[in-house]
């Protein structure tokens, strides 16, 4: 009997225990978690909201912030959930009529853009508040927080930085990362380093009611994917030099490129005319972009890497190197210049009658006749060899998009153009000897070329980005720089450098007027024929300084400006003074005796 009572009590205790557990669990589910499960029960779908990363910042070589981001509010409409009868309310908030709202939506539908569509960007805070206030009455309408590019520039740098633009419907057919309304880099570093700058989107999962309204979060956010902001770029640009270069080229057409010859870092890159990058950031992008595209001055063209020019007499140091390396001439070889060279029935002129000149004097005085005769001795195959050695006819590899290769007349090129080598014009080689004819180059190619002369024969890939800073680890990694060594004897390079030194520092040099006391500048002037009859020639100057242990290589071209010594060389002089912090007053251009080149 006692045993039966014990079993009965045990049974009651067990039933009571489980009853209490059941009641407590029921209370937990209905009271504490009731609202959550009510939302889940009423939710018809789980939707992933994109969390947009902040694009990476840009800094100059000294750590000055150039490009950054600010929060920007965009109006996003779900074409599936938006009720057209709410168009008048939304229009009133936006300051437009219902037809304007319909147009915003249907324009996107016609462009094959369904789902969540950003229809307005860069909304002011007052408008955002009103939309949030009426959110219950505007199903399918929400405010998305994005970022807007902001600029803290003491120089325009438009062709360096570039701009971003909304991705097109056509591009979305092949892109998997991007969504409707996403921005992508279109030019400059914004395009070239798109993968690094864009970051990685995050995801926030929310429940969606049948009406289109969304809950705050789903599953306590445990399924959310964290966002990764874009990496920062540390540029090689010397901001003071860049600003000075832009100032000196203002109002002209042309380009300036400055490079550190010891590593290929670009210190300044200017193309004029240019544009204000800030006008391509914000809600007026389309209107401003259209104006730039239609501008007759073509400010969107990066003349430093896209425009092609005959190099003119700046080509002569390359010819000298080719002649010396191939054993066609040495430092004692002389050719007679009587003011012209008769070739067949045609006279090929020079800038003066220089008499017997060796290679150093020929570079100094820019003697055409010397280089005509040198070209005839070298012939096309060896000229082609050395042009290719210095990278002409190929891209330099600069970290900017849309670089032009220029045109370099290889044997294959000549055969294709003229049918065979036997059909080539008689004066072809003579033109190649002085950088004319079919040869065309970009200012960037010229900067790499003169840098290789300066540093002893190394071709470095030019680059604008020195390092990349990871947004998660905060670690900064230097970029890898490719280089290759030209097989040029130091003795021959020294002969050419001596000629370029005499151009600037010895009386009779074509750029003697820009001599800078205390600074050993090696340079070469050039005057290149313009493509259109009646136009003034292009003005070239290439240089490096100092002669020993050079710190900078510089290329200046000014379109339709005449002699290289008249315009390009004085601009280079001012830039060298800026770079080396030289304060002495130098003779003004108007008082110089300009020598042709």
Note the beta-strand portion: 15-25%
Helical segment tally?
Answer: 18
- Computed over alpha carbons, the radius of gyration is 34 Å
CATH-derived topology of the largest domain: Beta-lactamase
Q: Average pLDDT, to the nearest integer?
A: 87
Q: Which CATH architecture of the largest domain would you pick?
A: 3-Layer(aba) Sandwich
CATH superfamily of the largest domain: DD-peptidase/beta-lactamase superfamily
Largest sheet: 7 strands, mixed
Unreliable spans are 39-43, 586-592
Overall structural class, as computed from helix and strand content, comes to alpha+beta
Helix content: 25-40%
Number of domains: 2
The CATH class of the largest domain is identified as Alpha Beta
Distance between the amino and carboxyl termini = 128 Å
Find the count of extended strands (DSSP E, 2+ residues).
22
Shape: elongated
How would you describe this structure to a colleague?
- This protein starts with a helix and ends in an 18-residue tail after the last helix.
- It is an alpha+beta fold and 597 residues long.
- About 2% of the residues have low confidence.
- Helix 3 crosses helix 4, helix 9 packs antiparallel against helix 18 and helix 11 runs antiparallel to helix 17.
- A hairpin with a 6-residue loop joins strand 17 and strand 18.
- It has 18 helices and 22 strands.
- Strands 2, 3, 4, 5, 9, 17 and 18 form a 7-stranded mixed sheet that branches. Strands 11-10-22-21-20 form a 5-stranded antiparallel sheet, sandwiched between helices.
- The radius of gyration is 34 Å and the shape is elongated.
- It folds into 2 domains: 189 residues, Penicillin-binding protein 2a (Domain 2) (Alpha-Beta Complex), CATH 3.90.1310.10; 329 residues, Beta-lactamase (3-Layer(aba) Sandwich), CATH 3.40.710.
